[in-house]
Design brief:
- With 149 residues, the chain is α/β, with parallel strands linked by helices.
- It is built from 3 helices and 7 strands; from the N terminus they run βαβαββαβββ.
- It has a 7-stranded mixed sheet with strand order 1-7-6-2-5-4-3, covered by helices on one side.
- Helix 1 packs across helix 2.
- The longest helix is centred in the first third of the chain and has 15 residues.
- It binds adenosine-5'-triphosphate and magnesium ion.
Length: 149
């Protein structure tokens, strides 16, 4: 299923709510994975902030993990108690992603794993893919892709 949205920054909570709803419905036995695609500045981190808020994490806690590569946040959502935010932008070879040690995070069905620049990593099975594109100064075109049950 592919859906396209044109959203300003203040509208992102609506999309975050939809995404979390889809993942709750899916009831996986491992961590759901959200892949965030799009150019520099397209809005991947900003969406992750909206997602964090949706999980009861203060959005001010969430920054681009560009230098840290991976960050874990604890939230208050009944299903998803943590959010792991990965930014693979700096990887030059897919094997470098091993340093992230995502295996443990990926086993936990109460954790959402959100990845910026997934193309720089070895293949991750996505539950949801979001592609961001700058429409204009105040708007992003965001394409949501997920498999229907
Ligand atoms: P990078 O690849 O460098 O990590 P990014 O995709 O994470 O970039 P952001 O840092 O989220 O991009 O956003 C870049 C800028 O775009 C920010 O100034 C942010 O305020 C603005 N922005 C993000 N999302 C939207 C939106 N939906 N509508 C309008 N502006 C937005
Ligand atoms: Mg970013």
């Amino acid at each position: 299923m592919t859906e396209t949205f044109f959203l300003g920054e203040e509208d992102l909570r609506v999309l975050a709510e939809k995404v979390v709803g889809l993942l709750v419905q899916k009831q996986k036995s491992s961590a759901p994975v959200i892949l965030l695609e799009g150019d520099l500045g397209a809005g991947k981190t900003t969406f992750t902030k909206a997602l964090a808020e949706e999980l009861g994490i203060s959005k001010d806690e969430v920054h681009s993990p560009t230098f840290i590569l991976k960050k874990l946040y604890k939230g208050k959502h009944p299903t998803f108690r943590s959010l792991v935010h990965v930014d693979a932008y700096r990887f030059t070879h897919p094997d470098e992603a091993r340093v992230l040690r995502l295996e443990e995070d990926l086993k936990d069905s109460n954790t959402i794993v959100a990845v910026e620049w997934p193309s720089k990593m070895t293949y991750l099975q996505a539950d949801i893919e979001l592609t961001f594109r700058v429409e204009d100064e105040h708007t992003r075109e965001i394409t949501l892709y997920y498999e229907e049950r």
